[in-house]
């Protein structure tokens, strides 16, 4: 026998073929009655099971009062407050819509979801990318966002292929620059090129100083110059100002060491052997850090290279004069 506070007594009546009448009880009171479908039983079965007690799952009162109260409280605690936050809900839906790109992509080369670009710069940049594709045949697309983006929808929207580059600017934190170059583009613009662009212009310090729009414009200028350049781009063109400051200081340091080594000859004579003896030290400082990085990125005809060379020569000359006088004073005191 099933025990339940909500139950149905099912009575059989009639003769050979009969219907069953169910009377449902909820907490001891009758709540509803209805006729069940006709079922064929022989008379003996009716006598053996004239009355059957079953759980009243079919009754309209099978939800207990405490449960109804709980659902009522839950309704006012969740549904009703959400009406007050309808604006936030609409905003959330709008942000979710930004995760995919829809519509026509014709002449749409820049999609600025994150509002990183002023309207005028966005329009000029879009026109520039259109001209660049006509000149080089490489499709460059720019996407900025502060929300996750569905990569498959982006690729489908712009029909990105092996001869395209997606510049993806994610402003949610950290390095904002991401690149997705096709394999054909990588033949000309190597992996180191993209790594340098990301580390040099996408870092937090550069973005804080020049802004997100400054970083984006500088990156596109670098890509444009390398695409129009003959040959392969192993390194990103240009030299970051922080990198240049370091190379300039190291060039001056190398000149100081070279001048000091050359001044040991005394009597305003250059000590060639000592100059060559210390050449690994000043040569690394000036050659490897003051000349090499600039030549790789900007070539031999570079203002940065000229300034480093002048700094090296001036530093070595001053160091030579300083140590010559120092040695002469020591010699005069000894004599």
Automatic annotation (TrEMBL):
Q: Does the keyword Transmembrane helix apply?
A: yes
Keywords attached to this Swiss-Prot or TrEMBL record, sorted alphabetically, are:
Membrane, Transmembrane, Transmembrane helix
Species of origin reads Galdieria yellowstonensis
> Does this UniProt record's set of keywords contain Membrane?
yes
Q: Which InterPro entries match?
A: TPM_dom
* Name the UniProt record assigns to this protein: TPM domain-containing protein
Superkingdom of origin: Eukaryota
UniProt feature coiled coil, ranges: none
List the transmembrane segments. 244-262, 274-296, 308-327
Q: Which stretches make up the TPM domain?
A: 110-223
């Amino acid at each position: 026998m099933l025990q339940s506070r909500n139950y149905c007594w099912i009575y059989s009546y009639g003769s050979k073929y009969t219907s069953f009448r169910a009377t449902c009880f909820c907490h001891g009171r009758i709540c509803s009655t209805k006729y069940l479908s006709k079922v064929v039983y022989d008379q003996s079965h009716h006598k053996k099971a004239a009355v059957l007690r079953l759980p009243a799952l079919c009754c309209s009162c099978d939800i207990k009062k405490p449960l109804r109260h709980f659902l009522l409280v839950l309704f006012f605690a969740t549904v009703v407050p959400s009406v007050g936050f309808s604006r936030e809900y609409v905003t959330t839906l709008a942000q979710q819509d930004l995760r995919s790109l829809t519509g026509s992509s014709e002449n749409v080369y820049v999609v600025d979801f994150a509002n990183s670009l002023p309207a005028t710069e966005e329009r000029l940049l879009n026109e520039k990318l259109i001209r660049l594709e006509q000149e080089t045949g490489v499709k460059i697309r720019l996407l900025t966002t502060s929300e996750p983006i569905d990569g498959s929808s982006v690729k489908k929207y712009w029909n990105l292929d092996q001869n395209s580059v997606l510049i993806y600017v994610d402003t949610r934190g950290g390095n904002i620059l991401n690149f997705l170059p096709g394999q054909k583009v990588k033949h000309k613009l190597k992996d180191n090129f993209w790594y340098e662009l990301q580390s040099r212009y996408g870092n937090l310090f550069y973005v804080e100083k020049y802004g997100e729009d400054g970083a984006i414009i500088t990156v596109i200028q670098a890509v444009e110059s390398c695409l129009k350049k003959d040959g392969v781009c192993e390194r990103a063109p240009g030299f970051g100002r922080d990198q240049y400051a370091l190379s300039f200081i190291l060039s001056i340091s190398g000149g100081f060491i070279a001048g000091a080594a050359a001044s040991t000859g005394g009597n305003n004579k250059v000590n060639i052997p000592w100059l060559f003896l210390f050449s690994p030290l000043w040569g690394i400082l000036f050659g490897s850090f003051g000349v090499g990085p600039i030549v790789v990125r900007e070539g031999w005809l570079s203002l940065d290279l000229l300034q480093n060379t002048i700094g090296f020569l001036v530093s070595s000359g001053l160091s030579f004069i300083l140590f010559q006088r120092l040695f002469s004073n020591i010699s005069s005191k000894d004599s």
